[in-house]
Design a protein that fits this description.
- The structure holds two protein chains of two kinds.
- By secondary structure, chain A is an alpha/beta fold.
- In chain A, helix 1 packs across helix 4.
- The longest helix of chain A has 22 residues.
- Chain A has one domain: Rossmann fold (3-Layer(aba) Sandwich), CATH 3.40.50.
- The radius of gyration of chain A is 15 Å and the shape is globular.
- Chain B is globular.
- In chain B, the strands form five sheets. Chain B has a four-stranded mixed beta sheet, with helices on one face.
- Chain B is built from 15 helices and 14 strands.
- In chain B, a hairpin with a 5-residue loop joins strand 12 and strand 13.
- Classes of the chains: A alpha/beta, B alpha+beta.
- Chains A and B meet through helix 2 and helix 3 of A and helix 4, helix 5 and helix 6 of B.
Chain lengths: ~160, ~425
């Protein structure tokens, strides 16, 4: 199928902190996705991005964001939230200690009129966010699933 | 208090928004008198000083950069300068300029975020930056672009804009090409004009009358607005070399906070943009002075709410300074001066966006850190914030609890506290006790 979407029209943005256990899951997913779909989508690993998420999404047609989530469910559960037409709520993503969390950054982009046409947020339920720890086993398993789902998502976006 | 009989009343805010980190405020009021103000920081202690023990000196810049996502350069700069003092190394010329430049990038980024998204909503009557952006989209766009200009400097010099990785003892692991720096110029020229416009914008805000008697503390350098070097000076007349810091500034624990409080000879003092501008006004640029004069703003600024003006002037200064440093840049012969390790103790103080940041390291003959001490600006301002709240509270007592709590949050935001650095958001509780 001929594809007339430019590569940069899909932007995958992994968020989190490499040094805080399961909080690294979004960044690790982005690194894997660069290998899987790097020729078709722009991939960014953004540590502690806060308000800079607004800038990171600018100009993309589709933004797929991946971050660790905290909703009280079992670690490793994958949430898929569509932020294209309305707020995703602040409860699921831990507040950034630096003033603006993911949900707030998305709303700021929306009121400023720079939110991409499609914004999908993948939240992977975190278990352990202790400093210096690797991914916990359920989150490490979820990493494969979230990568597969986003690869599929890219195909749909480009169809 | 609305009743004639004194009553007990507790006002609580679960989280003070738009500050960096997590903490709480508890105000106890008895009758019409403020009994106690406690800025409670319950962020768990982060033990960075202990992490550093047993590590090689060369790891310091990368470890301390992790203390804060907003001001990593400040930690790196105080760290490398303290170690260089010990090793008898002075970083001069282009390398010194590059360090000023990366620090300017951090000031621009940190100040622009605070001015536009954290504090401006307080003056324009919005509950958040997002609510403000609905009505003031053009202004917020300008603020974010200014912040991005600061990010660009940090990303070019530091390898990335968050937790930069190129700073090292002796210089940098990589220095930019002249054309790379020149590539920043057009955007910085735009940002300089936007910064002047920012000063004019905030000068038009309405400020409450509030002028506590401050002892301002900042670095002062004979030739320049302070970033990495200078004597520690106070408006009280005190003038010290950084070596004497701990003889005058002491940290102590308080039971309600995981951050230490620092006092100067036992008394609270103020660090940060307000102190810096007041103590270094002669080193502001002609344009910064002119914009202030055009806005009929005289220095010194004595009202903590004017911190937003000081921060805006410093954005302008940092942009002009960045352009000056880029203009004269010649790549240094080596990216870092060679280091000869010697055992002993080194200290340094640099000007983080929120005020002076003191580091001391004791190093052994193998270059291993044996002891580390870090005094961040927010722990220095904590006592002063509490004292200002005590002074500001009486006018808030007639207000309903919720409004009083919101007004306290606005006071706290004046200092741009970085609670993440001091240990980390704020719950506010006002407890009103019976006076009988």
């Amino acid at each position: 199928m001929k594809n007339d979407c430019p590569c940069s029209s899909i932007r995958i943005i992994g968020l989190g902190n490499f040094m805080r256990g399961d909080d690294a899951v979004g960044l690790l997913a982005a690194t894997r996705l660069r290998q899987e779909v790097g020729d078709r989508a722009e991939v960014i690993e953004a540590e502690m991005a806060g308000v800079d998420i607004v800038e990171l999404m600018k100009g993309a047609r589709v933004a797929i964001l991946i971050d660790a989530a905290r909703s009280g469910q079992s670690p490793g559960i994958i949430h898929r939230l569509d932020a294209s037409s309305g707020p995703i709520g602040v409860q699921m993503f831990p507040h950034s200690s630096h003033a603006l969390g993911l949900s707030e950054a998305l709303e700021l982009a929306r009121v400023m009129g720079v939110l991409p046409e499609t914004v999908i947020v993948y939240g992977v339920e975190a278990g352990n966010m202790e400093s210096g720890q690797p991914l916990s086993p359920p989150v490490a398993n979820a990493l494969d699933d979230v990568v597969d789902r986003i690869v599929q998502e890219c195909k749909v976006c480009r169809a | 208090m609305s009743d004639e009989t004194a009553q007990t009343r507790t006002i609580a805010v679960d989280m003070v928004a738009r500050v960096e980190g997590e903490g709480a405020l508890r105000v106890t009021v008895k009758g019409d008198t403020v009994q106690d103000v406690e800025l409670r920081i319950f962020e768990p202690p982060r033990f960075f000083e202990a992490f550093l023990q047993g590590r090689h000196y060369s790891e310091v810049p990368d470890i301390v950069a992790r203390i804060c996502g907003i001001c990593p350069v400040a930690y790196q700069m105080s760290g490398v300068h303290a170690l260089e003092q010990l090793f008898g190394l002075r970083v001069e010329g282009s390398l010194r300029d590059l360090r000023r430049l990366i620090y300017c990038g951090e000031w621009i980024e940190s100040h622009a975020l605070h001015v536009y998204l954290l504090q401006a909503p307080d003056f324009l009557g919005y509950e958040s930056g997002i609510a403000m952006a609905k009505d003031h989209g053009t202004v917020v766009t300008r603020g974010l672009r200014l912040k991005k200009a600061g990010n660009a400097i940090m990303a070019l010099l530091g390898g990335r804009s968050v937790h930069p990785v190129s700073v090292k003892v002796g210089g940098f692991s990589r220095v930019p090409l002249r054309r790379e720096l020149e590539g920043l110029k057009d955007e910085l020229l735009w940002a300089r004009d936007a910064a002047a416009e920012t000063v004019r914008w905030v000068a038009g805000f309405e400020y409450p009358e509030f002028t506590p008697d401050y002892n301002y503390v900042a670095l002062r350098h004979p030739d320049e607005y302070p970033l990495n070097e200078g004597q520690v000076v106070a408006s009280s007349g005190l003038q010290l070399s950084v070596n004497e810091f701990e003889e005058h500034f002491t940290e102590h624990q308080v039971s309600y906070s995981t951050a230490l409080h620092c006092t100067l000879q036992g008394s609270p003092y103020l660090v940060g943009p307000l102190a810096r501008v007041n103590l270094n006004q002669e080193h502001l640029t002609p344009l910064a002075k002119q914009v202030l004069a055009d806005c009929e703003i005289g220095l010194p600024l004595r009202n903590p709410f004017h911190g937003i003006i000081a921060r805006s002037v410093e954005i302008l200064y940092a942009l002009e300074e960045s352009l000056r440093l880029i203009e004269r840049y010649e790549p240094p012969p080596v990216p870092a001066a060679p280091v000869v390790v010697r055992p002993g103790t080194g200290v340094a103080c640099t000007e983080a966006p929120r005020g002076i940041l003191y580091h001391r390291y004791k190093v052994d003959g193998d270059g291993i850190i044996r002891e580390a001490k870090i005094v961040p600006p927010t722990s220095q301002n904590q006592s002063r914030i509490e004292q200002d709240l005590r002074l500001f509270m009486p006018r808030l007592l007639p207000l309903p609890d919720k409004e009083a709590a919101l007004a306290c949050e606005r006071v706290i935001r004046c200092y741009d506290p970085c609670i993440s650095c001091a240990t980390h958001f704020l719950n506010l509780e006002i407890k009103r006790e019976s006076s009988t």
